[in-house]
Design brief:
With 697 residues, the chain is of the alpha+beta class. The chain has 24 helices and 7 strands. It has a 5-stranded mixed β-sheet, covered by helices on one side. Strands 1-3 form a two-stranded antiparallel ribbon. A hairpin with a 7-residue loop joins β6 and β7. α8 packs antiparallel against α9, α8 packs across α19 and α16 packs antiparallel against α17. The longest helix is centred in the last third of the chain and has 77 residues. The chain is flat.
Length: 697
């Protein structure tokens, strides 16, 4: 009889996925019937999990309690910890409920899974308390947390994760700028070091939060990387639950949120990736009504796809339709930016004028918010430095007291030894020799103490100088980045409005207005290039720029470089791309930085070539495993004695020519980061030829 029941139960479980589509109520009733027949708590756990996966939010709480009690009766610690984490996720707004979860977890036997669960609950409790704290309390807590983080480190990795996660929570509640992302990256490295049995809930929580933060900060590559890590976690959970027989556990919404967020960061995606993620969203819409409703109510996945594909005329009506949708309130600024871009691309000046005004207003508010965040970051750093100085002063006073005490002990000891030697002296000769020896030792000791004092003082001065230099360098970087952002915004506005003014001018003055607009565009482009070059150099020299190595088409990169620069060629000068390589080459490199080197070479050539041609080319040296890019012109050429000097910062052959003297220096920095090199081909005498030798990886 028991075997028959087991067979019937397996048959029901096998056909449940089909039944649930037809009649969910019947499936639930069937599971409840099987649950009533379960004889042991262990037998009821799979059935309760099925009911939990099928239940709504309210019913999930009830099944959570039933699952926890069943697991407790059969001493199944793994299930108990899983249910505790689920309960914590449900009651994130109630500190008392989460406190009960923490107590339940602490009563279970110690393991990596148990430690992670306790840390997960503490993180959620701290996050909830941080949201309820005043700004003044947050600042005090931040000073304390940063000071403690720089001074101490615990042996237990979960305590270190909790300490750093707490710092990120309080820092993120005040600012989401570079200081915050710096600590997020440190937290990610620490989370990756967690033991495999205790690395489930924390990575999920971390990558969900970091993907949202990086997306809001328009750090596209970091946001995509975080979401890809999150997708790996979801895929692993899907496999694990399938292996456990949890056939009703559905992650469609989780996949959809990741795909949509990745698609919103399309500037860092290839065309094939854009197409792949959009198709995955469409497949989810076919099988999930909730996702399909969100797709059609917000319109964002389609908008991102059309903008990423540069189908601006198709994207424009959808942007107008969905920009005021209730589901897009938080994404309004991003959609305004996309609407401005689409209107500019199709020449819809009416929409552009309306949208630019509103977008600039929101951008101004956003800039004020970012400026306030920068100020908070600087204030936090200043407060931490003040705290460090106070601690250093206390430490110095403590050491001085210890030295004074040591001197007293030494003096007493010396007197005692002298008295003892005097009492034990038998002859004057022995007394005299002992006295000389003691004097010599005292002088040596005093000299050593003086040298030690000088060394300690020198060490303190070097430490202070190092801290000041690091602080000055950090302040310089923050200043350059902030000023770069502040300059770009008004320049973009000037260029945009000058274009609109030129388009809206009457026929009589339209030609003059167009010329003025071109002059404004050219000078704005020059200034933006200067700002971008200065910022790039600052980031490269401080190691903030990392190479994003991916396979890319060399012909596509070269054609794109030509299209970006060919308008700068002087009248009568022909600029084109040519290569003797019969087929396209896929090279593992950072396409953006490779393109930047080629554009700088082409821009430099266009300045000094008044007639003739400028040719971009590349060849493959299979023997040395190198790709050699060249930009050849028929311009004024470069003297051999200047072939190396021109790659130095601010070096220019013609001081009256446009430019900052930074472009070639940036080319060399990028080449070094890609393990390549740039140089001038001094054997070419009909003009100038610049070479970029890139290794084949």
């Amino acid at each position: 009889m028991t075997k028959i029941k087991i067979i019937l139960f397996l048959i029901v479980i096998f056909f449940l996925p089909t039944m649930v589509k037809a009649d969910p109520t019947a499936v639930k009733d069937s599971l409840l019937h099987e649950l009533s027949l379960a004889k042991t708590p262990q037998d009821s756990i799979p059935l309760l999990y099925h009911l939990y996966d099928l239940a709504g939010r309210t019913d999930k709480r009830n099944y959570n309690n039933l699952l926890f009690n069943a697991a407790k009766r059969c001493n199944n610690n793994k299930v108990q910890l899983d249910i505790i984490r689920n309960t914590c996720n449900i009651y994130t707004s109630s500190d008392s409920a989460m406190a009960i979860c923490q107590t339940d977890a602490e009563l279970l036997p110690e393991s990596d899974d148990q430690k992670e669960t306790i840390t997960f609950i503490k993180v959620n409790r701290i996050s909830r308390n941080a949201r309820a704290s005043s700004e003044a309390d947050k600042q005090k807590m931040l000073q304390k947390l940063i000071g403690e983080y720089k001074q101490t480190s615990n042996a237990d990795i979960y305590e270190n994760v909790l300490r750093l996660y707490t710092l990120c929570i309080y820092l993120g509640s005040s600012t989401q700028g570079e200081l915050y992302t710096e600590y997020l990256e440190k937290l990610e490295k620490l989370i990756k070091q967690l033991p495999s049995e205790g690395r489930h809930a924390l990575p999920n929580l971390f990558y969900t939060q970091s993907a949202i933060i990086y997306t809001q900060n328009e750090e596209y590559a970091k946001a995509i990387a975080a979401d890809k890590e999150l997708l790996k976690i979801i895929e692993q959970l899907t496999k694990d639950y399938k292996a456990q027989g949890r056939i009703f556990r559905n992650f469609d919404t989780n996949y959809y949120n990741c795909y949509r967020r990745i698609l919103s960061n399309y500037p860092a995606l290839s065309r094939d990736e854009v197409e792949s993620y959009y198709q995955k969203i469409l497949e989810l819409c076919k099988i999930n009504t909730t996702i399909d409703n969100d797709y059609h109510s917000s319109g964002r996945p389609l908008i991102y796809y059309l903008m990423a594909s540069q189908r601006y005329s198709e994207a424009l009506p959808y942007l107008k339709k969905y920009i005021n949708a209730p589901d897009n309130t938080r994404s309004r600024m991003q959609l305004l930016k996309l609407l401005t871009e689409a209107a500019t691309a199709v020449g819809d000046n009416t929409t552009l004028l309306q949208t630019t005004t509103e977008y600039n207003k929101m951008l101004e508010e956003y800039n004020h918010l970012k400026a306030a965040e920068k100020y908070k970051e600087l204030q936090i750093l200043y407060d931490v430095n003040e705290l460090k100085n106070q601690n250093a002063q206390l430490e110095l006073e403590k050491r001085e007291a210890e030295i004074k005490s040591s001197r007293t002990v030494i003096h007493i000891t010396f007197i005692a030894i002298s008295v003892l030697l005097f009492l034990l002296a038998i002859t004057c000769w022995l007394y005299y020799r002992t006295k000389r020896l003691a004097g010599s030792l005292q002088r040596s000791k005093q000299k050593l103490q003086e040298e030690q004092h000088v060394l300690l003082q020198t060490q303190k001065e070097l430490t202070i100088a190092r801290d000041q230099a690091e602080g000055a360098n950090r302040m310089k970087t923050l200043f350059i980045q902030n000023m770069s952002h502040e300059i770009r915004t008004p320049l973009n506005a000037i260029v945009g409005f000058s274009h609109i003014m030129a388009e809206c001018a009457g026929n009589s003055g339209k030609e003059d207005m167009a010329n003025y607009s071109q002059i404004i565009n050219a000078n704005s482009e020059l200034l933006l290039t200067l700002v971008g070059d200065v910022l790039d150099i600052a980031k490269m020299e401080t190691g903030e720029i990392k190479m994003n190595l991916q396979p890319c088409s060399l012909q596509s990169v070269c054609n794109l470089a030509i299209s970006n620069v060919e308008h700068r060629a002087k009248q009568g000068v022909k600029m084109y791309f040519h290569t003797d390589t019969p087929s396209d080459i896929m090279l593992l490199t950072d396409a953006t930085r490779l393109e930047q080197v080629l554009i700088n070479f082409l821009t430099n050539a266009s300045k000094f070539t008044n007639e003739g041609e400028i040719v971009l080319s590349y060849s493959v040296d299979t023997s040395n495993q190198e790709v050699i890019f060249s930009v050849t012109d028929t311009g004024i050429g470069i003297p051999k004695d200047k072939a190396e000097i021109i790659f130095e910062r601010f070096e220019k052959l013609d001081s009256f020519a446009q430019g900052t003297g930074l472009g070639l220096h940036i080319c060399r920095l990028i080449a070094n980061m890609l393990k390549g090199k740039v140089m001038v081909d001094t054997s070419y005498t009909k003009g100038a030829r610049f070479l970029f030798i890139h290794p084949i990886r």
